[in-house]
Amino acid sequence: MEAIARTVLQKLSSFAQEEFGVIWNLQDDVQRMRSTVSAIKAVLLDAEAKTNNLQISNWLEELKDVLYDADDLLDDLSTEALKRKLMVGNSILREVQIFFSFSNQIVYGLKLGHGMKAIQKRLEDIAKIKITLQLTDRPLETPIAYREQRQTYSFVSKDEVIGREEEKEFLKSYLLDTNETVNVSVVPIIGIGGLGKTTLAQLVYNDNAVQRYFQQTMWVCVSEEFDIRKIAQKMIGSDKDSEIEQVQQDLRNKIRRKKYLLVLDDVWNEDRELWLKLMSLLMEGGKGSIIIVTTRSRTVAKIMGTLPPFFLKGLDLERSWKLFSRVAFDGGEEPNDRELLAIGRGIVKRCAGVPLAIRTIGSLLYSRNLGQSDWLYFKEVEFSKIDQQKDKIFAILKLSYDHLPSFLKNCFAYCSLFPKGFKFDKKTLIQLWVAEGFIQPSNDNRCEEDVGHEYFMNLLSMSLFQDVTIDDYGDVSTCKMHDLIHDLAQLVVGKEYAMVEGKKGNIGNRIRYLSSRTLSHFAQTPSSSHKLRTFIILGQQLYGSKCLDLLHFHFFLSLKCLRVLTLCGLDIVTIPTSIKELKHLRYLDLSKNHFLLNLPPDVSSLHNLQTLKLSQCFRLKELPSHMNKSLRHLELNECERMTCMPCGFGQLTNLQTLTHFLVDNREGFEMKHMPNGLRGKLEIKWLDSLRYYAEEVESAKVLLDKQHLQELELHRRKFNQEFCGCGEDENILEGLQPHDSIKKLVIDGYCGRRLPDWIGNLSSLLSLEINNCNALISLPEGFRNLISLKRLRIYNCSLLEIRCARTNGEDWPKIAHIPKVLIPPFTPSLFRYYT
Q1: Worst-scoring range by mean pLDDT, 158-172, 175-189, 207-221, 770-784?
Q2: Phi-psi bin for 613: left (phi > 0), alpha (psi -120 to 50), beta?
Q3: Paired residues of 498 in beta bridges
């Protein structure tokens, strides 16, 4: 609540002259609204502390609703002002003349004025009620700053799991039993939520001896919906929307006569018939096959188990303390403060040996940088409240949420839109938070994505995320939520968020954020949905037809307040021109629409659009001729049929992500206009088109200032022998020198004889690939300077291979000048190497 109030106040306080030019004489209304919102904001802390009072709870709901409406109206105003600013100077266009016509300005001004006055009236009525509710002004507390000095994460990775060695070895004895008398055995692991059933199963599943023993290993997160077709699809690793007959045949072929290990994680199904149907498909495996089932239900274990169930217990006090120390103290080292340690042991005892609760409360105490008195307060006050509740573990987890600052509460709540077991991509999640306005402005001029990264790491340090994967550069790439944490997210979101899982679902009139696995609700335009800010179609697991028809588009395009729209994998063929009506839109995901040919020029009218995702739109040929200046992320992975890039990249000063750039000589040397803020990965294709501008490329050094790029791939369009040894290619590559902070470099189809010397300056380079460079005769001396290089791949470089083959590989290190640690064994028939 405090976050949306703060957002409205920021907008009211930051109006520039352009906005006042749109609303004319409404400055007084703006000032009144700002004063009213400020007065209400002052009592929010008191009100939110009294939400058990039904009147106050209803008052807060009404307040939240009007604040959202105010934010939409103010955003409308800012967008209108931005649109007029961008159109200044294009008076030759008739539509611009109409737009700026005096009558049009009057109509818009009157409409906006009425909207402002209506919202102000609602705010004043709400402000009057606060008096009758006897709410007192309490300045909002400044959140305690989260610690920044610890660079590692407070979560415990699978390699650091504490206190489960005996349980792991016991389960391994089940799995590695060589007395194989039956084809398939089922071992249930039973325990309450948060005990670590999944973690234990992961420890066993990833054990080297276990991986060697089984011919096939498979992991399926089942969760609450026991759908045989989906489970089978996950087992075979397919995301195709195939019929059950084809799926079951593929599954049986995959496991037939193979000794397999299957983990069915988080099973809730107590319908024995469903289990028997799935089990009939799994009997094709070879003798000694094992299925591990993790569940909270003894009934599930009784239905599914063929071997005695394994009852997972909580950690004893010493192991609990060891885990707590790992996350609560710097470096896992106990401090010398005996009183603090005594308080900590009392807190740990109340966590009842549940690892998730221990990690969560330990992370909370660490990240908030609390002292002895605060720890005592937690033990005596916070935990005394927990002891009175039925579900004590869940109440402990909720403490982490209650102590989050408001901006982190929004980010955490947003995760409730995704199903249990969902793998969050960190970059995508941050882009969604930015699109929804959850990121507060930074005092140190950092971009919103960098602040969003800090938010993500704070939530991770609070153990609200887990199961992270780390990319090649040591950064967190993906994560998941524990089921109990997901339950917590769905509990705290109230009436603003909804996820429609099945064919039926309730969409209330206060819903602002919605996700769904079905399109069946949305062929018409329910009035209760017109205020939606987020609409996410969850993609692969849709009920019914995936095809998005005009009726569905009519629904989506009626959602005038949308900031986020995800229509991924829906077989969309065309986008209606009326998409320009979604003027608040910040995030548009159209990826995996394999039949989409192009985007209408009207996409350029989305003046607030920040993120546009078009990856795996295999038939997409081109983008609108002029892209939005507000664009920050443009993803074009695997858009193989694109023929050119739009003009005006130099105007996209906010662009951070550009996964692909196609060089087209029809546009001249357009690449020199790419903005300096590019991050992550950039793949440049059709470099042979630059031969007409080779000298200009060499002198321009267009990539040298792109210091935030991590990966660079340079590709030719085709391999023509006539160009082998082409001097222009050497000039081009010389001019494409990246910043020396680059981590990965791929050079593919290069026709020069020598690589540029700048490669030896890439001191941070971790991975280097040189492919299909048939004219290359040597590698530069500077290769010896690649002190960080961990992976080298050289493939289909015929002259290098021939030269090494003459001496049976003895000259290979001399030719390559490669650091000794990377000198590979030479194989004439296969000139490649991995580390």
Answers
A1: 158-172
A2: beta
A3: 514
With bands split at pLDDT 50, 70 and 90, how would you rate the model's confidence at 644?
Answer: confident
Using one digit for the tens of pLDDT, what is the confidence trace for 421-464?
899 999 999 999 999 999 988 788 889 999 999 999 989 988 89
Distance CA 180, CA 281 (A): 20
The separation between CA 522 and the C-alpha centre of its own chain, rounded to angstroms, equals: 26
What is the dihedral sign for C-alpha 555, 558, 564, 565? positive
**Summary mean pLDDT of the chain:** 82
CB distance 755 to 780 below 8 Å:
yes
Tokens of 36: 């009213």
Gyration radius (Cα) of the chain, Å: 30
**677: its two tokens:** 């803020």
Cβ within 8 Å of residue 367, ≥6 positions away: 146, 147, 154, 458, 461, 462
pTM (2 decimals)?
Answer: 0.87
The pLDDT tens digits of the residues spanning 371-402 come to: 778 788 888 888 877 766 667 888 889 888 88
Buried b / exposed e over 11-39, threshold 16 CB at 10 Å, is bbeebeeebeebbeebeebbebbbebbee
What is residue 61's three-state secondary structure? helix
C-alpha distances (whole Å) from 645 to each of 48, 536, 570, 664, 752 are: 51, 28, 25, 8, 26
- In a shared domain, residues 806 and 719: yes
- In a domain, residue 411? The reply is no
Residue 208 belongs to domain spanning: 174-311
Domain total of the chain:
3
Distance CA 811, CA 367 (A): 56
pLDDT at 102 over 80: no
Which residue in this structure is represented by tokens 């809730």? Answer: 268
DSSP-assigned beta bridge partners for residue 598: 622
Same domain, 58 and 183: no
Contact 23, 83 (CB under 8 A): no
- Secondary structure (3-state) at 66: helix
Q: What are phi and psi of 594, to 5 degrees?
A: -70, -15
CATH of the domain at 280: 3.40.50.300
Rounded Cα gap, residues 342 and 319, in angstroms: 16
Those residues whose C-beta lies under 8 Å from the C-beta of residue 607, and which sit 6 or more positions away, are 79, 82, 83, 86, 583, 628, 629, 630
